[in-house]
């Protein structure tokens, strides 16, 4: 039996792990907290944000969710802190702080 990613830990035998680079079921990325890799953290200033959403298509991790036509915040579980969103924001509403803590 192959275990979903959310059930795998350091005690899981290798025989029960999914082989790397092979996708056996869709939408499993939501179970993996890749944000723990982050070394820098984007911070959203809602006062400056104009909800132009120009940052959204640039995020390589899809960590800028949109709800009702507005930027809903930053998904820190998947954001790796690349800072692209801060670079493309024309209003300076996203800045990057050093460190991985949200």
From TrEMBL:
InterPro entries: 4Fe4S_Fe-S-bd, 4Fe4S_Fe_S_CS, PorD_KorD
GO molecular function: 4 iron, 4 sulfur cluster binding; metal ion binding; oxidoreductase activity, acting on the aldehyde or oxo group of donors, iron-sulfur protein as acceptor
Highest taxon of the lineage: Bacteria
UniProt xrefs under Pfam families: Fer4, Fer4_4
Cofactors named for this entry: [4Fe-4S] cluster
Keyword Disulfide bond carried by entry: no
Gene3D superfamilies named among the record's database cross-references: 3.30.70.20
Coiled-coil boundaries: none
Domain 4Fe-4S ferredoxin-type residue range list: 40-68, 69-99
Keywords, ordered alphabetically: 4Fe-4S, Iron, Iron-sulfur, Metal-binding, Repeat
PANTHER family linked: PYRUVATE SYNTHASE SUBUNIT PORD
NCBIfam families noted in UniProt: PorD_KorD
Name of the molecule in the record: Ferredoxin
Originating species: Evtepia gabavorous
